[in-house]
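Morning!

As promised:
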Amino acid sequence: MATKQKTPPAQDHLPGTVTAGLIVIGNEILSGRTHDKNIAYIAEKLEEHGIQLAQVRIVGDNEHDIIEAVNALRGRYRYVFTTGGIGPTHDDITAPSIAKAFNRVMERNTEALKRLRAYYKVEDFNDARQRMADMPRDVHLIDNPVSAAPGFYLENVYVLAGVPAIMQAMLDSILPSLKAGASIKTKTIQTELKEGQMAATLAKIQSQHAAKVTIGSYPFFKEGQVGVSLVLRSTDEFALQKAYQDVKAMLDDIAAHSTSKAL
Amino acid sequence: MATKQKTPPAQDHLPGTVTAGLIVIGNEILSGRTHDKNIAYIAEKLEEHGIQLAQVRIVGDNEHDIIEAVNALRGRYRYVFTTGGIGPTHDDITAPSIAKAFNRVMERNTEALKRLRAYYKVEDFNDARQRMADMPRDVHLIDNPVSAAPGFYLENVYVLAGVPAIMQAMLDSILPSLKAGASIKTKTIQTELKEGQMAATLAKIQSQHAAKVTIGSYPFFKEGQVGVSLVLRSTDEFALQKAYQDVKAMLDDIAAHSTSKAL
């Protein structure tokens, strides 16, 4: 028997917010060798600023994949950030890949070269280090207070370092210049009830509040504790509070009528 | 002055290995609320099996993005895995999205229904829980030893749970049935030298060994320690050893001739 597909309303982003995509560049994440720390940091920082991360792609040090990701996301989201691949070694191919994505020539950026020259001793400023000043034509630099070599942005694409401390400094320095969306408020309720006990009522509540609130349901199993986190998000404090009361009432009602322990 | 773009050889994957894509589905990762633990786990497990993770996409609970990611990656890689979105709540939309990606109808899977019925008490087996048996037509089930609700696969796309314990059990159960590639050997060398000191020589070594070995260079800054990890990977033990000796000789040579402390 074929059943109808139940498709909830597309909730790409909350009303009033601004969207962003993120491209994490580097073989080390894909091999499992390095556990990425940048995604969650960037997601949280952006959200504080009213910018919702709508998609992340992790690609290797591979020109084709970088170009494809940049061109797919820069047309779709207000901002695109990339991390990684802007150092001096052979596997740092982000800048030329971005140039190709925008169909721009690469050139040695005069201001970037000046900053690098000021940072390195003359005898240390070799070809590889000078190449960190090679960027697509007509970009804006992003300060690197840690190790001088700047990031850059062109149009809506922001090219950041991959080393967390440098990436964070770069993100901090550009955030004030980005368009801030409406700030997102969150309410989280943890319950020992099971998803299956509340799914029907929760779907009704989500549907009643669909215009202004998203409700996510996240089961957790840890340290002997089993339960569900319900996370409500909205840019509208009043709508959030109303949805929260409905969820709270639902949980109280189910708890009063059930003793089930099934997941 | 426009400089030439230096593009290293595309090293999408090592010879003899099999490639995979991963799609992580769920708003909770994109909001920064949940730090993903599945990507590194899957990357490592696949690599042990000679399967290289070539791309990851993290998308929200958004039908359009799920369909696009599935269709982009399933044509490109030997295997595609998805995690998340197969529970009973309104935000679990992975199964119908996969059905649309494959242009298949959804149907209640008889075997999945049987397993769920055996797991739940009659009075607890409500509509929401029954819907966890709704899957695209003609899929193969993936066992869920934790909470019964199975994952499934069709063609080369494997649909797994998002909860780490369940995802891991599912992955373990399917791995033996996947085509194993040549196993990848790794050698890592940590050095206190700077990337910029060795970039030129390292690029030469990479280029000499390009057919069989990839060399990644990863700077780290932690707990007062600053340095670079050089990671060599190959399916060929002999080629790996030769490249390793070249890198080692390079490091010894640079260390002997330099006292620079610049990054």
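The CA atoms of residues 106 and 115 of chain A lie 18 Å apart.

Hope this helps with the figure draft.
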